[in-house]
Amino acid sequence: MSRVKPTALNSLPMFFAHAHALEIEAMERHQELADVMEVHNNAEAAAIFQRLAGYGEQHAAEVSEMMREIEPVSIAPWDYDWGGTEAPETSAMENADYRMTSAHALNMALLTEQAAHDYYAQIAARAENDDVRRYAEEFAEEEAQHVQYVRQWIAKNPVALDELPLDDDPAHMPE
Amino acid sequence: MTVAPLPAKAYKSATRPVWCPGCGHFAVLSAATKAFAHLQLSPEAVAVISGIGCSSRMPAYMSSYGFHGIHGRALPVATGLKTMRPELTVVVAGGDGDGFSIGGNHFLHACRRNVDITYIVMDNEVYGMTKGQASPTSPADWTHGKLTPHGTGMRAFNPAAIALAAGASFVARAFAGQPNEIARMITEAISHRGFSFIQVLSPCPTFCPEQKNWKQIVKGFADGPTNNTEEAARRVHADDGFSTGIIFKSSQPVWQPHLADNKDAAFLGEEFAV
Fold first, then answer.
1. Do A35 and B16 count as a contact with CB atoms less than 8 A apart?
2. Are the C-beta atoms of B154 and B148 separated by less than 8 Å?
3. Looking at residue A163, what is its pLDDT?
4. How far apart are CA A11 and CA A1, in angstroms?
């Protein structure tokens, strides 16, 4: 028997299960990044990630509210249809560095907000279910607003992104 | 009353990891919590056992029971626990130095013994906690360690091949850049009856920044798991060490000693009284 991968395109329950997981994953990664930056005494980046985690929590609650009347579906973590290895709004841990500035953190956020927008835009373009298409368009629009918001945030903090700040006394020197 | 399923977050403790930002071990922590949530394991019915090293801090970051033991000895502790408390789900977490060098002999015999435990090795090819010495899986020409400025000059240990040769009944390789795939493998490994071994390629951004390139070279094995040891060995030896997937899975007798009914905690206390 062939195994059919769940897809956000199929139905509203599938769509909302993906939308909710997308926000939860983003929130948890941003919280993880906030915590690790705080542990490494990088209060500047920690504050940004903490704020982003707060937005993720808020958005997850909003999606939860929207799906209150929808029959929940259970999807294994590896079966989500993300089109990549992780949910599109999840910042890549591999891009984090203890020396990163608020500009680096915001740039990470910009990439993921853009990816979330593209994800919903693709669903809207491909969906055959009218309800899924309508919600995907709405969510894509919302993510586009987040992209604009992060861009404005970056504009207020114009810091060069080229290199990480030098650390004259790194905690981890090879011995 | 319907009990809401436990989310992955419920398996994390309030202790914040001290791993470096960018460390691959975060993916394994996330994957383990997702696997536990998928299986809906009760946190009090799970024990995460470790030795020493960056990755061995794992039990502190999880809400299940844990035992942060001594260097290289996680597998004997886990074996003892599982044989006395077979109803527990026992997961061992550690690194390449802890598991393949200092605990190397325990690794061989755990594979051979086939106790029903899951062993996750976060392999970053370096001793990170002691600040960057070559480990058994370091490439022969890795020159970044101050103790091996000209490289180790030794062929790297091949964990999957050794596990197969020693008799492990479940052997898999994963990559930290694919946390949901790791979650799937941990779920399958826990569900497998017997000793299950997962080598996770987990980049160390601090001492091996070159491992950032792993994302470009990691690929999946062409074929799914086999239950044929020779075929699995052929695949592992033909591979460059960067193919991921469940390599080998077979049903083999699980070692579980008969527990005498009259051996209670008081008896054990007397046995170990100093």
1. yes
2. no
3. 77
4. 22
Instruction: Say whether B183 and A77 touch across the interface (CB within 8 A).
Output: yes
* Separation in Å, CA of B130 to nearest CA in chain A: 8
Select from B18, B132, B179 the Cβ nearest to the Cβ of A86: B179
State the pTM of this model.
0.93
Alpha-carbon distance of A29 to B129, in angstroms, equals 24
Q: How many CB atoms sit inside 10 A of residue B147's CB?
A: 11
Alpha-carbon distance of B102 to B87, in angstroms, equals 29
On whether ipTM exceeds 0.90, the answer is: yes
Q: How many CB pairs under 8 A join A and B?
A: 86
Closest CA to A93 of B123, B51, B243, B177: B177
CA–CA dist B13, B60 (Å, integer): 7
What's the mean pLDDT when you consider all of chain B?
94
pLDDT band at B257 (very low <50, low <70, confident <90, very high): confident
Residues in a beta bridge with B246:
B172
For residue B145, list chain A residues with Cβ-Cβ distance below 8 A. Answer: 174
Kindly list the residues of chain A whose beta carbon comes within 8 Å of any beta carbon in chain B. Answer: 24, 28, 32-33, 35-40, 74, 76-78, 80, 85-86, 93-98, 100, 172-175
Residues recorded for chain B? 274
pLDDT at A2: 40
Query: Scanning every residue of chain A, which has its alpha carbon at the shortest distance from the alpha carbon of B182?
Result: A78
Q: Render pLDDT for B173-230 as a digit per residue (tens, 0 to 9).
A: 999 999 999 999 999 999 999 999 999 999 999 999 999 999 999 999 999 999 999 9
Q: If DSSP codes are grouped into helix, strand and coil, which group holds residue A121?
A: helix
Instruction: Report whether pLDDT(A6) > 70.
Output: no
**B147 is written with which tokens?**
């103790």
Nearest to B203 among A86, A94, A98 (CB): A94
Mark yes or no for CB contact B18/A97 under 8 Å. no
